[in-house]
């Protein structure tokens, strides 16, 4: 899916983490709601969504949120 979404105007990137054999989380970042809507309405995304429900996922939860502030730290 990352190969598909990277070409959506307004896609800013994604992060993914998973525990060994356990649950995972993927966070996608979009410039605005219009960019997210374009991704959600993509034919390839809709097809993958249906396939995921049928074949890959037992369950999942989707959260749509706005990041108000973000900061980080990297020890050099």
UniProtKB/TrEMBL annotation:
Keywords: Monooxygenase, Oxidoreductase. The keyword Protein biosynthesis does not apply. Residues 3-51 form the ABM domain. InterPro entries: ABM_dom, Dimeric_a/b-barrel, Jasmonate_Hydroxylase-like. Signal peptide: none annotated. One of its GO terms (molecular function) is monooxygenase activity. The keyword Cell cycle does not apply. It comes from the Bacteria. This is Heme-degrading monooxygenase HmoA.
């Amino acid at each position: 899916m990352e190969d598909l979404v990277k070409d959506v105007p307004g896609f800013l990137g994604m992060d993914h983490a998973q525990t060994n054999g356990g649950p995972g989380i993927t966070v996608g970042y979009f410039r605005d709601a219009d960019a997210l809507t374009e991704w959600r309405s993509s034919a390839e995304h809709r097809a993958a969504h249906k396939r995921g429900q049928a074949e890959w996922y037992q369950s999942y939860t989707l959260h749509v949120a706005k990041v108000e502030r973000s900061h980080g730290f990297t020890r050099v």
